[in-house]
Design a protein that fits this description.
With about 160 residues, this protein is mainly beta. It is built from two helices and twelve strands, in the order E-E-E-E-E-E-E-E-E-H-H-E-E-E. It has a single domain (about 15-155), classed as Sandwich (Immunoglobulin-like). A hairpin with a 2-residue loop joins strand 6 and strand 7.
């Protein structure tokens, strides 16, 4: 966990804790996954609307927005993001048949949270937290095979 105490700190921290597939059906070679992601922010941080975009081989398949809010100092705020995937965009990809045959489906997500950090209730700084994740799902077991996330904070 990161705590924000001075202007020299690295700022709020965003992490992807879990991805859960709530529905994943294969009907007439059409899948309908609905992944959800839990993210935690740690900082004295007031933020605007959040955005999470989901990509399949570089093509945007859906985007979700979250409401604005405030994460108090030294506290964790959990944000649940649910994305209903537009399967037409996934199935129409030339890579879909290959992925289906391999039993693995790789998707990437990009989350952006921008806002203002208050330091000692005196100093205000604009902060943008970005996170890129790549997740590989096993189609038959509906489990995550591999996940990698990178976080970037811009003060």
């Amino acid at each position: 966990m990161t705590q924000l105490n001075t202007p020299k700190d690295k700022g709020p921290m965003i992490t992807m804790n879990t991805i859960k597939i709530t529905k994943f059906q294969l009907v007439n070679t059409t899948m309908t996954p609905q992944p959800g992601a839990n993210m935690s922010l740690v900082a004295s941080f007031r933020y605007a609307n959040t955005t999470t975009s989901l990509y399949y081989h570089g093509v945007l398949v859906e985007e979700a927005r979250g409401p604005p809010g405030r994460a108090k100092a030294r506290r964790t705020l959990r944000m649940n993001v649910t994305i209903d995937v537009i399967m037409d965009r996934v199935v129409s990809s030339p890579d879909f048949a290959t992925d289906l045959g391999s039993g693995l489906l790789t998707m990437s997500s990009f989350s952006r949270v921008s806002g203002q950090v208050k330091i000692l209730n005196l100093i205000k700084r604009h902060v943008v937290v970005k996170m890129n994740c790549t997740t590989t799902f096993n189609i038959s077991t509906q489990a995550i095979k591999e996940q990698s996330c990178k976080r970037k904070v811009k003060l």
